[in-house]
Design brief:
- With about 375 residues, this protein is α+β, with helices and mostly antiparallel strands.
- Among the domains are: about 180 residues, Bira Bifunctional Protein, Domain 2 (BirA Bifunctional Protein, domain 2); about 60 residues.
- The strands form three sheets. It has a nine-stranded mixed beta sheet with strand order 1-5-6-12-11-10-7-9-8, with helices on both faces. Strands 14-13-15-16 form a four-stranded mixed beta sheet, with helices on one face.
- A hairpin with a 2-residue loop joins strand 15 and strand 16.
- Helix 1 runs antiparallel to helix 5 and helix 9 packs antiparallel against helix 10.
- It starts with 14 loop residues before the first helix and ends with a strand.
């Protein structure tokens, strides 16, 4: 095997794509800052028990594991940054007030999430800690929508769900609770035959509700259909009320409801949302409430947030235009050096030719040139 080949679903990012991703990252983090979010940078490696705290079986399967040569303990390469940020809030910052944190960095997956997905997503996200009310959920959803708007997406659909519906059904039926993981998988895939096979042993009300969940998707009228077809368990009533309130807070956003879209179910504790844009069948961003993750770090805190993969988002955007630059000759002339320094401080891109070499770059287009006329270095347009 040639030594320059990379593992499957791992790829280099070349100049044009890298610039597009980096400009998008900076714009999104600047937008988070305007909302009052503080940037944190968790480590790439952690001890496994900390990294997977409250994250569920699915995250365990997605995490690369290795042995720490210093301590002999098992470590993991992060596959998601959400629990790391929750640890920072609960264990390091330890504030009593509302805390808004944001982050950006690479994560690594043992397997790709989709056919063309990378195993090294560049995750960016934001989290609110310390407020249990729906106002925090509404702010996170607004921030997620503004992030996609900032990236240039005018058509965004927000899909709402709530883990409380399934959890209430499982709490009412011991047999169904034993099949929780299998039910979660079947509901996410809307695999009705699998649901029918498992639900045959459940109580009639549980069976009817589980078979109804894959059909409860569409416009906001889904909530009224859900109230009519699902049992009036306190957990279900509360979940539907919260979804109704968030729809009212969403303003003019294009909102749909899918009560079987349970991405992130294992550590989410309340409302969940997924954002969809034209050109991508899968959700481009996901978020929701996860109030119990901090318990593992000794301090349960209400929490809600969202994240997305910058690489995937950037692939949906048109190619970045080449940057206009100024071509300058190589030389030790003090006046030339002063002129170049001044242009760069003013934000201009100045590319000096190296002796005997030509520039061949995809990122820059030299539309101007520095020339010496009458003892002064001046800029002239090319072409």
């Amino acid at each position: 095997m040639p030594n320059w080949l990379l593992p499957e679903n791992i790829a280099d990012v070349l100049p044009s794509e890298a610039r597009k991703i980096e400009e998008l990252r900076r714009a999104i983090l600047d937008n988070f800052h305007l909302y009052g979010y503080e940037l944190v940078m968790p480590p790439m490696l952690e001890y496994l028990e900390s990294l997977l705290a409250g994250a569920g079986h699915d995250m365990d399967l997605r995490t690369f594991k290795l042995v720490d040569q210093l301590s002999g303990r098992t470590m993991g390469v992060r596959a998601d940054m959400t629990t790391q940020v929750a640890r920072i809030d609960a264990h390091l910052l330890n504030r009593d007030s509302v805390t808004r944190l944001c982050y950006s960095g690479s994560v690594l997956h043992t397997r790709p999430n989709g056919f063309h997905a990378t195993r090294e997503p560049l995750q960016i996200g934001a989290e609110i800690y310390g407020h249990a009310g729906l106002e925090a959920d509404a702010e996170i959803q607004e921030l997620a929508l503004s992030t996609l708007s900032l990236a240039g997406f005018a058509e965004v659909r927000m899909d709402l769900c709530h883990v409380g519906v399934l959890r209430a059904l499982l709490e009412s039926d011991d047999q169904a609770r034993r099949d929780e993981d299998a039910l979660y998988t079947a509901l996410r895939a809307k695999d009705v035959p699998a649901l029918e096979g498992m639900a045959a042993a459940y109580a009639p009300a549980t069976r009817a509700a589980l078979l109804a969940l894959p059909t409860l998707y569409g416009g906001v009228d889904v909530l009224s259909r859900a109230r009519a077809s699902l049992p009036a368990l306190p957990g279900i009533v509360r979940a539907l009320d919260e979804l109704e309130a968030l729809i009212a807070l969403a303003g003019q956003a294009n909102v749909t409801v899918d009560l079987a879209d349970l991405g992130g179910y294992q550590y989410e504790s309340g409302t969940m949302f997924a954002l969809y844009v034209p050109g991508l069948p899968n959700a481009v961003a996901r978020g929701g409430r996860y109030d119990h993750v901090g318990e593992t770090f000794g301090r349960a805190r209400p929490a809600t947030g969202f994240s997305l993969d910058l690489r995937e988002l950037a692939r949906l955007l048109p190619g970045a235009a080449r940057k206009c630059a100024i071509h300058a000759p190589w030389g030790r002339d003090a006046a030339l050096k002063k002129k170049i320094d001044g242009l760069r401080k003013a934000g201009e891109i100045v590319i000096q030719s190296l002796p005997g070499s030509e520039n061949d770059q995809d990122e820059f287009e030299c539309d101007r040139v520095l020339v010496l006329e009458d003892g002064n270095w001046i800029i002239k347009n090319l072409g």
